[in-house]
Every structure is written in structure tokens, then in C-alpha cells.
Design goal:
The complex is a heterodimer of chains A (379) and B (455). With 379 residues, chain A is an alpha+beta fold. Chain A has 3 domains: 190 residues, no CATH class; 34 residues; 105 residues, Cytochrome c-like domain (Cytochrome Bc1 Complex, Chain D, domain 2, Orthogonal Bundle), CATH 1.10.760.10. Chain A contains 12 helices and 4 strands. A 4-stranded antiparallel sheet of chain A has the order 2-3-1-4. In chain A, α8 crosses α11 and α11 packs across α12. Chain B has one domain: Formate dehydrogenase/DMSO reductase domain (Formate dehydrogenase/DMSO reductase fold, Up-down Bundle), CATH 1.20.1630.10. Helix content of chain B is 68%, strand content 0%. In chain B, α5 runs antiparallel to α7, α7 crosses α8 and α8 runs antiparallel to α13. The relative contact order of chain B is 0.17. The chains are: A alpha+beta (379), B mainly alpha (455). The interface between A and B is large, with 77 and 75 residues.
């Protein structure tokens, strides 16, 4: 018995009444390092052993609140800050609609954390190398016996005394339990570096493969089926039609409804001379021009037409529209640029109706005048 | 029978077995090799499962056009089956959590098994939303994650609530179940003789030592979990009902849905648990643990929830009439007398009429009759989901778009397959884990608790 250390003295009892009495006695005798093992929880054992109420409900409370707050925060952030989106006419922060998910996250986080705290922090599980494991003692108390152990490192530990106390309480068996130093572990296993490394590697693997699957793999063939659909797209070849084009041509000699051919193709001077702005600078027309200008022109020309593009060099910067040249141009000349485009500037004839083009010109004029106001313009 | 002594509590476990006997009895199915009957049963469920797998294979290969879903009935069998299976799960949590909070000790004999059925039912249910999205490999989009489109899921949508509710439900049920299993696994570990079994049990019992310093926290956590699981189980079917109730379709758009769905879920879940327990108690000789009194009590819950469902059916008609809204009134008349009248009357007779037989004590305690009634209840509850989903969609606001929904062979194959999937898990469960909680049963047998004599 030289390599064995004494762990505890154990007493085995046959009835729940006996074990309650034993626990009371051991507690009142002033032992602190003892434990009672029973196959199921015994009513009244908490008070017999004088155990303090478990604090785990507070863990549930705190984690539950944190879970609720983070769920709400996350939904607010995604829907109001990161990608504000109005859905079904609801406000960006639609509290009633967020309640179900907030509730679910509260329950989920609190349940998981309470159990995790209990098992891994309080019980220091998993641990299969405790001195009691594989002992005759544990094999009996896990079936039908009620056992009590007093640990050898209890300050009041005294073999003969304990034997006598257990016997007087009616123990059917009293025996010591020994353990080997090398095979025993009292420290929590989950804080071992091996386990922490395992967790880190697992985390990297799972998040990495999730990222690759969701953000890369799903956009590669054959998973990009959503992009490839069995329909005819304009400009595509077609086996079906005789002329081999997917696009249908208009019937010869006809024009689309509402289509007016532009008379001044490639004739800017003529346009400058002959085209007149049919719109008056009314409030309505200026508002319309402003809206359309901000949508279609401002990305390149800037909100104030100073050529301060927002395209960060991805497209050649246009000149300012406040130049002498453009200010002296007639409305018809600008109309021509919008309709036909000019060098790298594309045509805007399909995005803007004729009326809208004239309205944009009115707004450009207003911008020009605001930068070059004469004294007589002041009221 | 005539002279009942109401002063005496009905014993939960009959026949006063010893703790040792309980241990052996519950561990016996795990120690013995499965017999021929088990393999026959497994062969049946696996064949059903194979049929389902073939159905799924066809749907993935050719697309969801293999199903009966049409326009306007876009929600066909998959949604019906989803709601049905989630509902089946609800009995488990009700038994393990709600009855625990109400200190109904008779639940101790059936809680473990019912919880197991919850987990399997939710697993089965989970298949259906995934296949119903048509491209199951894109199911990742259901989860909010920073993606390439920089889009988030729509948190205002009941379908997204559903994703959170069902996955939370699965996770919490699983934790609850596992926490309950730990002491039993430790007991099995301590009696295991083979090395492999011992290693496996040691691994999963995490080193449990039946210590009362642990039992104290353990009981508290069990209480906390029960406290969480109770509102959770109510929320899950409430949210499932929002999938319907938040839409504006007549027949769906109804505030009565959440309680009505929850009652229906418990109703069908109890019927399913009762059905399976009847076999379990017979095959494993658990008649004194899962007593006829327990089954009697379950039947009482079936009649309670069944009557609530019946009340909801009546109230739907009343509301439709009282609202004065024409499409609403038409929907309900159409349900009872339209093209799907056959489904409606199956539902009403199975859910409302037959369970009323449980008012008779003789019937409540007769195993064959209660078995048949519970089977009918499940048929009825499946049809309830069918009626709600399909009849409302097939006759919506616009008569020009009306269409009749007919399930296809693939639909049926997947439905049968879902039963195969569920019962395969149930069968494997009975042979691999204790189907009755050893510790919980021990704590309620005669003489298990101290008498505190002389105090």
C-alpha cells in the first residue's frame, strides 16, 4: 500500500432515513470535506448537509438578459443601420416583430450557458479519473445504496473516530478508499491547453468551411443555377428563330408607340439653334429636374455640377458645367449632349423622357446661376 | 372499482419493486441482443424510410414539380407535414417540463421517452422546410450571416421566426434530455461489464458521481430548464401558427390560431406518445412503471386538448359569421361543404367526436380502444393541417386562380418516409438508451424518500 494515498473513509447505508441522519451528524460534528452519494436526489438533503442554495438561476438571469439585448441590438443594427430596409411598411426598428426572435435567443442562450456553467465550471466535468470512480463504493451508491464519504484532508479527519461514528449510525459497511497519485485528476479538464487548442482548431475549421461554402462555393458551378436560366436573353443566339437572334426585330417600316425620332443626330449646331426649351422654370419643373439630375447626372458631375464625381476615378472626371462654354450654350445644345452623349459620356435618351431632359436643363441653369449670381439677382 | 379510496394517493409505480430490480429492468433492453421482432420492426421502418429517400431523390433531381403543389396551392404536403411533426414534438416538452412544474410525479415514468420523441419529431419536421425551399443546398440563406450580397434575413417575417423557434426548440429539448440522461448513464457505467460499453458510458456521463453536492445544483438547473422549456414550447407552435395567421388569406388570418395550434399540437403529441408507450410497456414489461393510471391520465389530457380544438373549430365558424366579411364566410362554408369536405369531416370526426369517448372510464382504461382512438386523433390532426393549408389556398380571393390540389406519388412517398425516419430513431433509441429515467423512477417508488420520523 505504499504507492496508494488514502482518499477518504466511506460508510454505506441501506435506507434514506439513515443517510439523512448520517449527513446531519457529520455536518453537526463539524466536518467540512465530506460528500453524500445517492442514486437519486434525497428530499431534505440540502438542509441536512447545510448546502447553500444554488446560484445557477442567476447565471440564467444574467445570460438571458444579455441574450435578449444582443438579439435586439443585432436586429436593430442589421435592419436600421447596416442595410436599412422598409418591409411591409413597418418602421426600421419594428419592436413587435422582433419579439419572437428575442424570446427564442433569450431562452437558447440562458439554457445553454446555465448547463455549461453547471457541468464544466461547477462540477469540473468531464472528469473520469476521480478517486471514487471504479470503486465498489460508487458501484453500490449508483444502484441502491446510500453512501457518505469523509475526505482524508478534512482537518478533523480521524480514522478510528469516523469508523465508530459510522457504525453507530447504522452503516452496513465502512471502508477506506485509496487512490494512485498518477491517474487522478482534480483539475478541470476543459482548461487544459490540449482542449483549448482543440477548440481553437475546431472554431477555425468550422467558420472557415462555412465561409467558403456560403460565400465562394455557392457561386461556383453547378450551384450558380439561379443565374443560368432557360430563357432567351436579348443579344443571345437562338436556335429557334430563323435569323439566329434571340431578340425579335420590329416589323419593317413601323415605329414603337410614342417614339419620336431625334431630328438632329450628329448635328449639334443645328440643335443649338433650332431646339427651344418648352418648359418654364416653375417650382414643379425645377423639382423634377433636381430629382432627375441627382439620380442620373450627379454621380459623374457632382451634386453642384462642379465635376466633383463620386466615382473615385473609376470613370474619367467630366468638366465643370459652370464653364464659360456651357453657360453660353443654348438649352438646345445641352439637350443634344444629354440625348446623344458626348465622347465618353453616354446618351441618356432611354433613361430620361424629353420633358425630363428639359427639366434637368432648367435645373442645371439654376445651378449655374447660383454660382455666378449677378447683383441684380439679389432680391 | 366502485369503491375508490380518494384519501390514498395512487402509487406511481405499482408492485413495490426494489431499486435493484428497477435498475435491472430498465437496463435489460440495453444488455440483451435485439430479438427477431425488433429486426422485423426495423425492416419495416427502414423500408418506409427508403421510400421517402427515393421520393426526395426524385424531388431533388427533377425539382419540386414532382409534387402536387400548384398555383395557388404553393404550400402543399411539405408544410402540412412540417406542422404535423412539430406538433407531435410538443407532447414531450409538455410532459417533461410543464408537468414537472406542476409536480405531476406520474410523468417520471414517461418523460424520458416523450422527450426522445420530441427530439426525433423535431428532426423529422426540420426536413420539410429545407426541402420546401426547393434548393436545399441554399438553406444557409435562412441564417443571418455577413454574406456576399450584404443582405440580412428579414426579421419581420414569420418564416424567419420559425427558423429561430424550431432550432431553439431542438437545441433546448436536446439539452434537457441530455441533462436528464447524465445520472442514468453514470448508473449504466457502473454496472457495465464490457469494455466498449464502459468507455462509451464513461464518456457521455462526463464523470457523474451521484454526489449530493452535485444533485443540489442539478435539481435547480432542471427546474430552470423546465421553466424555460415551458414558455418555449408554447412559443414554438405559436410561431408556427404565425406562418399562417400573419398572412392575409381568409382561413389563415385569425387571432385564434396561436392557442388553437398549441392545443392541437399537445393533442396530437399525446396521442402519438400514448400509442408508442402502449408497445413499450408491453414489450419491455414496464406495465408497473408506465401504469394504466398513467395512460388514463394521458387520455384525460387528450380529451381536454381535443375539446379545446373542437371549440376552436366552432369558434372559427362563429367568427367568420360574426365578422360579416364575405370571403371569410365563404372560406368556412367551402371548407365544410366544398371540394375538400371529405377532408374536413375526417378532421372533425377524428378530432372532436371520437376523443369524447374518453369521458367513459372504461374506455380510458381499455388499451385496444384507447390505441385506436389515439391513432384516429393523429389521422385527424394531420388532416387538420391539410384542411387549413390546402383548402384556404385552393380557394383564395380570386376565383379565376382557384385550383384543386392533388398529392402525387412523390408526396405520399415523402410522407411515408417521414414516418419511417421517425420510427427508425424511436426503435434505435429503445435499444441504445434507457427509455425510462432510472433516477427519476427510483425517486418516486415506495420508501425512496426519508420519512423524517421523529422530526
Amino acid at each position: 500500500m505504499t504507492d496508494k494515498n488514502l482518499y477518504c473513509y466511506a460508510g454505506i447505508f441501506d435506507t434514506p432515513d439513515q443517510i439523512i441522519n448520517a449527513a446531519k451528524k457529520v455536518q453537526s460534528d463539524g466536518y467540512t470535506k465530506y460528500d453524500v452519494n445517492t442514486p437519486y436526489p434525497i428530499h431534505g438533503m440540502d438542509s441536512a448537509m447545510d448546502l447553500k442554495p444554488s446560484l445557477l438561476p442567476y447565471v440564467a438571469l444574467v445570460v438571458g438578459f444579455l441574450g435578449a439585448a444582443s438579439a435586439l441590438f443585432f436586429m436593430w443594427w442589421t435592419n436600421s443601420v447596416d442595410y436599412p430596409l422598409i418591409i411591409g411598411g413597418k418602421p426600421f426598428f419594428a419592436l413587435p416583430a422582433y419579439i419572437p426572435i428575442t424570446f427564442e435567443i433569450t431562452v437558447l442562450s440562458a439554457s445553454i450557458m446555465t448547463v455549461v456553467t453547471m457541468l464544466f465550471v461547477i462540477f469540473k466535468f468531464p472528469n473520469n479519473s476521480h478517486p471514487l470512480h471504479d470503486t465498489d463504493y460508487l458501484k453500490q451508491v449508483s444502484v441502491n445504496k446510500y453512501g457518505i464519504v469523509i475526505l482524508a484532508d478534512d482537518p478533523k479527519f480521524d480514522e478510528s473516530n469516523i469508523k465508530q461514528v459510522f457504525a453507530s449510525l447504522g452503516a452496513s459497511q465502512v471502508f477506506p478508499i485509496f487512490y494512485h497519485e498518477e491517474v487522478i485528476n482534480f483539475k478541470p479538464r476543459i482548461f487544459e491547453p490540449k482542449f483549448i487548442w482543440f477548440l481553437i482548431i475546431l472554431f477555425v475549421l468550422v467558420s472557415g468551411s462555412t465561409y467558403i461554402t456560403l460565400n465562394k462555393l455557392m457561386f461556383l458551378p453547378p450551384y450558380n443555377w439561379m443565374m443560368k436560366q432557360n430563357k432567351v436573353i436579348v443579344q443571345e443566339k437562338s436556335e429557334f428563330f430563323k435569323n439566329g437572334k434571340g431578340m425579335r426585330m420590329p416589323v419593317e417600316g413601323t415605329v414603337a408607340r410614342g417614339f419620336l425620332p431625334y431630328e438632329f443626330v450628329n448635328k449639334p449646331e443645328l440643335a443649338a439653334k433650332d431646339l427651344l426649351n418648352p418648359l418654364l422654370p416653375t417650382k414643379y419643373n425645377l423639382e423634377l429636374g433636381k430629382t432627375k439630375y441627382n439620380i442620373y447626372c450627379s454621380p459623374c458631375h457632382g451634386y453642384h455640377a462642379e465635376g466633383d464625381s463620386r466615382l473615385r476615378g473609376q470613370f474619367p472626371n467630366p468638366p465643370s458645367l459652370h464653364s464659360e462654354k456651357v453657360r453660353s450654350w443654348s438649352d438646345g445644345r445641352i439637350f443634344h449632349v444629354i440625348t446623344e452623349g458626348q465622347n465618353v459620356m453616354p446618351s441618356y435618351s432611354s433613361q430620361l423622357s424629353r420633358e425630363e431632359r428639359w427639366a434637368v436643363i432648367l435645373y442645371v441653369r439654376a445651378l449655374q446661376r447660383s454660382l455666378n449670381a449677378k447683383e441684380s439677382d439679389l432680391p | 372499482m366502485n369503491t375508490v379510496d380518494y384519501t390514498q394517493e395512487v402509487p406511481i409505480v405499482e408492485g413495490r419493486p426494489t431499486l435493484q430490480e428497477i435498475n435491472e429492468l430498465i437496463a435489460k433492453p440495453l444488455d440483451t441482443k435485439p430479438d427477431k421482432k425488433f429486426y422485423i420492426a426495423l425492416a419495416v421502418t427502414l423500408s418506409m424510410l427508403t421510400l421517402g429517400v427515393i421520393g426526395l431523390g426524385l424531388s431533388f433531381y427533377y425539382g419540386t414539380g414532382m409534387w402536387g403543389n400548384n398555383n395557388p396551392v404553393g404550400w402543399g404536403f411539405p408544410i402540412v407535414n412540417f406542422v404535423f411533426w412539430v406538433g407531435i414534438g410538443h407532447a414531450g416538452t409538455l410532459i417533461s417540463a410543464i408537468l414537472f412544474l406542476f409536480r405531476q410525479k406520474w410523468r417520471n415514468g414517461i418523460a424520458r421517452f416523450a422527450e426522445g420523441m420530441t427530439i426525433f419529431a423535431v428532426m423529422t419536421a426540420g426536413i420539410f422546410p429545407l426541402i420546401h425551399i426547393g434548393r436545399p443546398w441554399l438553406a444557409g440563406y435562412l441564417i443571418p450571416y455577413p454574406n456576399q450580397h450584404s443582405l440580412w434575413v428579414d426579421f419581420n417575417s414569420p418564416l424567419v421566426w420559425d427558423v429561430f423557434a424550431v432550432s431553439t426548440y431542438f437545441a433546448v429539448s436536446f439539452i434537457f434530455w441530455y441533462v436528464g440522461l447524465i445520472p442514468d448513464l453514470a448508473t449504466l457505467r457502473d454496472r457495465a461489464t464490457s469494455k466498449i460499453k464502459k468507455t462509451v458510458y464513461s464518456l457521455f456521463s462526463l464523470g457523474w458521481r451521484h454526489s449530493n453536492r452535485h444533485w443540489q445544483h442539478y435539481e435547480m438547473v432542471y427546474l430552470v430548464l423546465a421553466g424555460f422549456a415551458t414558455p418555449l414550447v408554447l412559443s414554438v407552435h405559436t410561431i408556427v401558427s404565425f406562418d399562417f395567421a400573419v398572412a392575409i388569406l381568409p382561413g389563415w388570418h385569425s387571432t385564434i390560431f396561436p392557442p388553437y395550434f398549441v392545443a392541437g399540437a399537445v393533442f396530437s403529441g399525446f396521442a402519438m406518445v400514448q400509442n408508442v408507450l402502449i408497445f413499450i410497456r408491453k414489450i419491455f414489461n414496464y406495465e408497473h412503471i408506465i401504469t394504466i393510471n398513467t395512460l388514463d391520465r394521458m387520455n384525460k389530457i387528450i380529451i381536454l386538448t381535443g375539446s379545446m380544438v373542437g371549440y376552436a373549430y366552432a369558434m372559427e365558424f362563429f367568427t367568420a359569421w360574426y365578422s360579416g366579411v364575405q370571403p371569410e364566410q365563404f372560406t368556412f362554408i367551402n371548407r365544410a361543404f366544398g371540394p375538400y369536405a371529405w377532408a374536413y369531416w375526417i378532421m372533425v370526426s377524428c378530432n372532436v367526436l371520437f376523443p369524447q369517448l374518453f369521458w367513459f372510464k372504461k374506455i380510458r382504461r381499455s388499451i385496444p380502444i384507447m390505441f385506436i382512438i389515439a391513432v384516429l386523433v393523429n389521422v385527424g390532426m394531420w388532416f387538420e393541417r391539410f384542411v387549413i393549408t390546402v383548402t384556404s389556398l385552393s380557394r383564395d380571393y380570386l376565383p379565376s386562380s382557384w385550383a384543386y390540389f392533388k398529392p402525387t406519388f412523390v408526396d405520399m412517398a415523402i410522407l411515408i418516409g417521414s414516418f419511417g425516419f421517425f420510427f427508425t430513431w424511436v426503435l434505435l433509441f429503445t435499444k441504445s438508451l434507457p427509455v425510462v429515467s432510472i433516477a427519476e423512477i427510483k425517486s418516486v417508488i415506495h420508501g425512496a424518500q426519508p420519512t423524517h420520523e421523529g422530526h
